[in-house]
Amino acid sequence: MDEDRRMLPAADVPADGTVLVTLRPVGDVSVETGDRGADGDELEAMLIALADGIACYRNYCQHWTDVRIDSGDGAAVRNGEILCEKHGAYFESGTGVCTFGPCEGAVLDAVEVAVRDGDVVLSDPDYAFVRLGPAERPDVEGGSRIDFTGS
Ligand code: FES
Question: Which side of the chain, N or C, has fewer Cβ within a 10 Å radius?
């Protein structure tokens, strides 16, 4: 397995939230979605810990596909389900199936990952790993942010 497909330690992925990673499509996958980065060549996916591993899904809702579920600080998770706060859809963290909400029965777009030697590894041949964190987005200015201390 290529070192550049290792993303982060599995222990750093929460079960009560999600972690964003940036990927690049290298296979036949949709890019016309809300998780697309500014240049259209990067996509976001969100990782969530399960009782027996890690799940990974593209970061767009099945209701309105231009809506990101994790807006950068981790998606809300309630009772093992990922919440899209836009209209309240719940998705099972282990399957991606929407159990409640306007897209009930739809399934999040899964990305294959595995845990090897304690690290989360991108095992999906349709994507390449770019970096931890969100894709550069057209609606977010790059560079530093000023925190509440003013620094
Ligand atoms: S956009 Fe996610 S529930 Fe409507």
Answer: C
- Judged against a pLDDT cut of 50, whether residue 143 lies above it is answered with no
Q: What is the number of domains present in the chain?
A: 1
Pick the residue whose CA is nearest to atom 3 on ligand 1.
Answer: 87
Q: What's the CA-to-centroid distance between 89 and ligand 1, angstroms? A: 6
| In-domain check, residue 137 | no
31 Cα–ligand 1 center, Å: 18
Question: How deeply is 149 buried, as exposed, middle or buried, from its count of CB atoms within 10 A (0-12, 13-18, 19+)?
Answer: exposed
Domain of 22?
3-74+110-132
Please identify which residue in the block is written with the tokens 């990101």: 68
- C-alpha–C-alpha distance, residues 58 and 14, integer Å: 17
Residue 102: the pLDDT is: 97
Instruction: Please give the backbone phi and psi of residue 10, each rounded to the nearest 5 degrees, phi first.
Output: -60, -30
Strands 119-122 and 6-9: antiparallel
